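dumping this here before i forget
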Amino acid sequence: MKTRYGLYSAISIVIANMIGTGIFTSLGFQVMELNTGFTLLVLWLIGGITALIGAMCYAELGSQMPRSGGEYHFLTKIYHPSIGFVSGWISFIVGFAAPTAAAAMALGAYCTAALDIEYSLFFLDLKIIIAILVILALTVLHARFKKAGAGFQNIMTSLKILVLVIFIIIGWRSTAQSSIEFAPNADSLKELLSPHFAIALFFVSFAYSGWNAAAYISSEVSNPSKNVPLSLIYGTLLVTLMYLGITWVFLKLIPIEMMYGKIEIGFLYGQRIFGADAGTLMGLLFAFLLFSTVSSLIITGPRVTQVMGEDYPRIRWFSHISKNDTPARAIYIQAIIAIIYLLSSSFEQMITYIGFSLNLMTMLTVLGMMIQRRRNRDVVISSYRVRPYPLLPILFLLVSTWIMIYGLIYRPVESIGGLLTALLGYLVWTILRGDSVQYPEES
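structure:
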């Protein structure tokens, strides 16, 4: 008998995919160019609104096409198998393995900063060693114990939400104060129109990435036509509110100059509120919370690879379901790719590369939702529908296009790397297209 994820587990996976690496790490890179509280809060608000609109668009598609695979499945059905394959390829190479590596790297950075330990083995820093061990441990958990893995995910995500809410309340009540201004002024309006604001959206879009997580496991969610849309929307809305709260608290308490280029912002928060000794404990707590982020990425990513294996006989090996009812092979392969990222990339490079590649695919999916709506305009559909339409999807497309254009101009190496990854995916598809591909009907 198959083990299915319920609504709470699906919401938990969405929240855990979103909350983690970005909010705990990216603020240090944003404040290097943006220095007003108003601008930074608007930045996170735009990111949250965009993510919520995206979740609503995916909810419409997911309620009509409830099969695992996310963009791979949607784009295959809406456009062409080659477009779907490219999105699945990006998910395989970039979309989950790279964020898994980034989250594990942040976890390692929090641990080493909190303990104030510098150690290396051969060419590996201690934070990388910790990251690799975490990935390996959680990979084994989710490859071999599906029910236990789901329980672990629910508990860790619940703890994460509770801790963040407590942090926001403590920060709100604290008398500590940085010098940052939150009222709009001439400087903040100038920053809103600057290229730096658009580039900062790369980090913010990465922090919000994961709002589409439930769409990747639709086939394993109970009553997917109802629960997938609910989990996408509720999960994203809750995360947006918490992100705004924790960003405000970080900016209120931590001087900007202390955050410049730092990954472990939560550790700085702990030091600022509770002093150096308690800061160590808080840093370890933030590291502990990142476990759920790594865990959720290990759950969702391999489901895309599994579905691609079901559709293409030459890569059928990836679709194997183990006796434990998990795509164990796909899970292990994703872990290997994540470890390769850990050994070869910097944190900032990974964020920009991930941001551009994933924006490209989510743009195509939201546009595809509009195409699908037009195709079915004469059909009575009882599933979830985005409203107001077409205002919301158009707004999403405008913000995503803005981010990508500035990415190509100001981060050309990582952005072009994303385009080359897509091209390589198309070349792989041309090799596999001779397969007799059959797509199962959604259930």
